[in-house]
Amino acid sequence: AAQLAPLPVHVVDSRSAGAGLGFAALAAAEVAAGGVWGHEPTGAEVAAVAAEVGRSTAAWFVVDSLDHLRRGGRLSGAAAAVGTVLGLRPVLVLTDGRIEVAERVRSRRHARDRLHDLAVADLRERGPGARVAVQHLARPDVAEALAERIRASSGTGDVVVREVGAVLGGHLGVGALAVVVTDR
């Protein structure tokens, strides 16, 4: 695309998805609008900001059913069967563009509690100016409740709540819940 475009194009891999990608795009737009550095930034500078925000963004999520992860090849059939029988809920993390299991908990409630704890700890570590989003698939009530708990525990007034897009939704399934935290 960069070679065929009539104007300069800088390709950025945010190594993230959903709100993490959105936060990278917002940071790039803020820098591109000017006023941030005292000079008009170059395309390379704007792209570097987007890449840095993508790298520094943390994203954790849980799913209601392990079936979508199994079908998508993210989890073996045996692991999905054992997890389902034992009632295990993996807390997943997006690390360098890959989905990994951060830990396992025993119930949906514990999974939501863990997302809350991870988000609040990360927000406190990052300090003022950090941004947070709660994403869901077809569970706005659960997402709003989690966002409210994060607001109350962290003192962060602005918690964005959005439904995940089709691509993430297809991989995670109905009931998926995520928290995404970034510096800017």
Automatic annotation (TrEMBL):
Name this polypeptide is given: DegV family EDD domain-containing protein
Organism for this UniProt entry: Cellulomonas triticagri
Lineage of source species: Bacteria, Bacillati, Actinomycetota, Actinomycetes, Micrococcales
Any GO molecular function: lipid binding
Sorted UniProt keywords: Lipid-binding
UniProt keyword Hydrolase, yes or no: no
InterPro entries: DegV, DegV_C, DegV_domain_contain
